[in-house]
Amino acid sequence: MRTYIGGHEAVSANDFVELALGTPVELWLGVEGETEEERAARMAAARDILAENPNMPDDVSRVAAEVIEAYAPELFNVIPVGPRRPAGRRAVAFKGAA
């Protein structure tokens, strides 16, 4: 099954997130080994994006909740458990001398 967002195919989970957000994931999470200057520039860009899109955090949270709800069994490896059946009675065997 292929997933397209805005005409672009999402091949990996990172592609899906990037296309859904409209920004690279690294903008929000940073990259290992970034300098203080790079971090400051990234944070400034993120602030600008949030200022232009004030509903973005709520929209992202809503989409994340919907995805978790839709794919919870696969995400968390949950196995549905049916109603419990009462355990059958077993005969108790006593061993020993009388």
Describe this structure in words.
The radius of gyration is 26 Å and the shape is elongated. The longest helix has 21 residues, at 56-76. Strands 1-2 form a two-stranded antiparallel ribbon. 53% of the residues lie in helices and 6% in strands. The chain is mostly helical and 98 residues long. It contains four helices and two strands.
The helix-and-strand class reads mainly alpha
Coarse morphology: elongated
Q: State which percent range the strand residues make up.
A: 5-15%
CA radius of gyration is 26 Å
Number of helices: 4
Q: What string, H for helix and E for strand, traces the elements in order? A: EEHHHH
The termini sit apart by 70 Å
Residue-averaged pLDDT, rounded? 78
Q: Kindly state the percentage of residues in helix.
A: 40-55%
Q: Unreliable segments (pLDDT under 50, ≥5 consecutive)?
A: none
The neighbouring-strand order within the major sheet is 1-2
Question: What is the tally of beta strands?
Answer: 2
Largest sheet, in brief, is: 2 strands, antiparallel
Features:
98 residues; 2 strands; elongated; mainly alpha
TL;DR?
The chain has helices spanning 13-21, 25-29, 36-52, 56-76, and strands spanning 3-5, 8-10. The chain is mainly α. A hairpin with a 2-residue loop joins β1 (3-5) and β2 (8-10).
Walk me through the topology.
Layout: E1 3-5, E2 8-10, H1 13-21, H2 25-29, H3 36-52, H4 56-76
Antiparallel strand pairs: 1-2
